[in-house]
Each structure stands twice: as structure tokens, then as C-alpha cells.
Design brief:
The chain is of the alpha/beta class and 452 residues long. It is 33% helix and 22% strand. Strand 15, helix 11 (302-316) and strand 16 form a beta-alpha-beta unit. The model is unreliable at 53-58, 99-110 and 320-339 (pLDDT under 50).
Length: 452
């Protein structure tokens, strides 16, 4: 499941313009002092003391002690990447994404976070916040966890950096984006990060307990502290998010400080896994299920076992199939209610399919497969071997968007057994479907692409 979630997000980054990067795990104390984390977050950080390797590094004498901090978040490292070369307003926005590294899975000592950062022009704030909210909506629709709520967390009373005016401007920008989104939201006074206000996404687990998962944070402070800048015409207007057609003003180029947007879609991957495990109670959507399918032999006859092994090879194959790629530019797709879904993982993955060719009775093997939560149970007997088909039970797969019941391969298979030919199959008809293994793999590919 962990791999499915991380691959799922990676498939979205290209289409939302994010570049995946890797940054160090440990940084010098001086970096955390620059960012403000040491002042406001030191008690929650792991620190370690090491020795400088030479007098030329960090102005230290050889062998002198130096304090380091294990990173609690990735934003300072992404600021260094931005500062590594000169930037132009034409480069903006720049989006960096990294997979970084206490009850059950909801609070752990080590966790993975889909931690992304957008460096944008002041005039791009509204669009980037709206795109981030759309990203959240697409992902949470695919996960099927139900409704979530949006909360705007504002300036803390005490520990914060920057001026009150800067905070007011940042909060106003987030409020405008929330109003534009058309979703319900409320204000959580004083619960913002020390560097800026944020939009938190709140989900309820199966017990009704609320968890903060995704977050979108607006930050004017870190770019200033790291002295980040890009070159733009009419810099004074540019810094205020304003534009002009005046050729005299446009002829003047100057440095402008970018705005930083922190965003995490899942938040902690481990916490999201815990919510999914509780929500689905072992019966996961096909794309998310670590136990996607199992092949069961009717008996242990050689012809049956040999055909079962061939079926496994066909169904698990990662041989590419014709695939319509979505445009790279950001444009939400028209998809079934309740809205657009994320882009599919590509290329065609190799599927995890198990095989049970033991001499046990079929009823015992089916019972065990159901208990273990397999999405698809594939049965192979002598008749299947002769016809080069399989008999599959797909009724355990949630058909949230109607893909499975209206799939062309499903309807064609039913037509061959006297199916009346309406536009969708019933759950009962999906319990016993005779089909070729090639067509079954096509059904599986469709389930993966539609996140069912």
C-alpha cells in the first residue's frame, strides 16, 4: 500500500509541474537559525554534534565541534536549491517535491511526507493556491475517504516571524483562494505555522476522530531570510503582484523576492495508510489493494496447473499496451462524478498476483482468499484450460464510478453466456465471469487507470 500511494503521487507531479528532488537529511545549525526553525522549533528537533573536517569549511578550525540538526521539514533545503542559480520571472513558478523521511501509524518516530514547495511571483499566489486545492480534491476523490473540511489557521499570538501587515496580506490571499474554491471552510485563530498562515485539510477516521492530513501554507518569510530573488521588469509593481503596460517601467529590471507556498497532499504517508486501513477494513479499491488477485486451481492435475501458471504470466505482465497520455499542462479532466480523478500511473505496471495450486478443495481455497481480502479471485479448471479462459469473481471490487460494471470486456464476456445486453453488469453477474486472461488484464488496467 505504501508503494501504491507513493507511485500514485509521483504520477501526478509531472502534470502539476513539480520536479522531484533529493536534499540532505542533516544540516548545520546555522541553516536552521537562518530559517527560524532553531528559534521556534528546536525543542522538537533532533540535534547532533560533529567535528569540522577542515578550516576552510564553515570558518571552523580543524577538529572544532559544530552542531547539526536532523531536518523536521524540507523547505530550507528547497530554498537552497532555488538560490543555487539566478532566476527570472519567466521561470516562475518553480515547484519542488521531495519524499522526506506516536499511536499506531498516525504518529510515528520516522515518517514519510509528500512535502512540496512552490516558489512563485506575488501575482501567481491565487492560481497556485487554487491548483493546490484542486490537487487535494483529485487525490482525495481517488482515495474515497469521504468528505473533508478546510480550516484556515491564522497568525499565532506569540511565536511567529514577520510583521503583522505581512501576515494580514498572506491571510487575505488564502481567504480569497478559499472563497474561489466554492468549498466550505472556517477559521482556526492562532494555529498557523510560525512563518505563515495555512489551509489544513481535516479528515475523520472510522471512530469519528479528526486528523489533519493535507496542508497548504503561504510563506513570505523564508524567501527573505534566505535572500532569494528573481529578476523581473518593473520590480516595485512586481513585488506587489501588480502589472503594467508602461514601456518605461517595463524597461527597468530588478530583483524581486518570491513567495513560497508549502504544500503536502497526503501529509504523513503512514497516517494516511492508517486512515485507509480503518476506512476500508480490509476491502480496498483494486488499485490500492496489496492483494490484487489470486489464481486458484480446481485441482492439481498437470494440465490445470500448467494453464494456471500461464495465466499468471499473462495477467502479471508489464508489457506496454496502447495508452492515451494526458496533456502535461494543468487542465482538470472531465471525469465521472464526484469530479475529476488523478492521472494514471504509467507505464503499465507489473501486477502482484498470487497462485494457489495446492491439492486442497476449491471451497477452502476460496474461503481463505476471501478472508485475506483479495480483490479478484481467479479460478482455473480443466474446462478453462481447454478454452484458454479463466472464471473470475470481481464482485469484491468497489465500483465507485461505474467503470467495472460497464467495461467492454466484462459486457462481451457476459454476452457470450446469454447476457441480455443492457449497459451495465450487476454485482451478482460479476461473481462468475468466464473471460480470457488477456481481457482480464485489460479490465485490471482499466481499474488502475480509473483508481477503482
Amino acid at each position: 500500500m505504501f508503494k501504491a500511494l507513493t507511485q500514485f503521487l509521483s504520477a501526478q507531479y509531472e502534470h502539476f509541474g513539480f520536479e522531484e528532488v533529493i536534499t540532505p537529511t542533516i544540516y548545520k545549525k546555522s541553516l536552521w537559525e537562518t530559517s527560524g526553525h532553531w528559534e521556534n522549533y528546536a525543542e522538537d528537533m533532533y540535534s547532533v554534534t560533529g567535528r569540522g573536517s577542515s578550516a576552510e569549511i564553515g570558518g571552523l578550525q580543524k577538529g572544532e565541534d559544530e552542531e547539526y540538526g536532523l531536518k523536521p521539514m524540507n523547505c530550507p533545503g528547497h530554498c537552497l536549491i532555488f538560490a543555487s542559480k539566478q532566476r527570472s520571472y519567466r521561470d516562475m513558478p518553480i515547484r519542488n517535491e521531495v519524499s522526506g523521511a506516536l499511536s499506531g501509524l498516525t504518529r510515528v518516530r520516522r515518517f514519510h511526507q509528500d512535502d512540496g514547495h512552490i516558489f512563485c511571483r506575488p501575482s501567481q499566489i491565487g492560481d497556485e493556491i487554487s491548483k493546490s486545492l484542486e490537487f487535494v480534491r483529485m487525490v482525495y476523490t481517488a482515495l474515497g475517504l469521504g468528505q473533508y473540511r478546510l480550516v484556515l489557521s491564522t497568525r499565532p499570538k506569540d511565536q511567529y516571524i514577520g510583521t503583522a501587515e505581512e501576515w494580514d496580506n498572506a491571510e487575505a490571499a488564502l481567504k480569497e483562494a478559499l472563497k474561489t474554491s466554492g468549498q466550505k471552510w472556517k477559521i482556526n485563530e492562532g494555529d498557523g505555522a510560525f512563518y505563515g498562515p495555512k489551509i489544513d485539510i481535516i479528515l475523520k477516521d472510522s471512530d469519528g476522530k479528526e486528523h489533519q492530513t493535507a496542508t497548504i501554507q503561504l510563506d513570505f518569510q523564508l524567501p527573505k531570510r534566505f535572500k532569494l530573488e528573481y529578476q523581473a521588469p518593473a520590480p516595485e509593481l512586481e513585488s506587489k503582484g501588480q502589472t503594467t503596460d508602461d514601456p518605461e517601467l517595463l524597461s527597468k529590471q530588478g530583483p524581486v523576492t518570491p513567495v513560497l507556498i508549502h504544500r503536502a497532499i497526503l501529509g504523513s504517508v503512514e497516517r494516511m495508510m492508517a486512515l485507509l486501513i480503518e476506512h476500508y477494513n480490509g476491502y480496498y479499491p483494486f488499485w490500492l489493494n496489496p492483494r490484487k488477485a489470486i489464481i486458484l486451481t480446481l485441482n492439481d492435475e498437470e494440465v490445470v496447473v500448467d494453464w494456471a501458471k500461464q495465466v499468471k504470466q499473462i495477467v502479471t505482465s508489464s508489457t506496454p499496451v496502447p495508452f492515451i497520455r494526458e496533456p502535461k499542462s494543468y487542465e482538470p479532466r472531465p471525469l465521472p462524478s464526484p469530479g475529476g480523478l488523478p492521472w494514471p500511473v504509467s507505464p503499465r505496471p507489473k501486477l502482484p498476483v498470487d497462485l494457489d495450486d495446492s491439492p486442497r478443495s476449491l471451497s477452502k481455497k476460496v474461503l481463505e482468499a476471501r478472508r485475506k481480502g483479495y480483490s479478484a479471485i481467479i479460478v482455473v479448471g480443466a474446462t478453462n484450460a481447454a478454452r484458454e479462459t479463466v472464471t473470475v469473481d470481481l464482485s469484491n471490487i468497489p465500483d465507485r464510478f461505474g467503470f467495472l460494471s460497464s467495461d467492454r470486456n466484462v459486457l462481451q464476456a457476459l454476452a457470450g453466456t446469454g447476457y441480455p445486453g443492457t449497459e451495465s453488469a450487476t454485482k451478482q453477474e460479476l461473481k462468475r465471469l468466464e473471460i480470457s486472461p488477456q481481457s482480464l488484464r485489460s479490465i485490471f488496467d482499466g481499474l488502475l487507470r480509473s483508481y477503482q
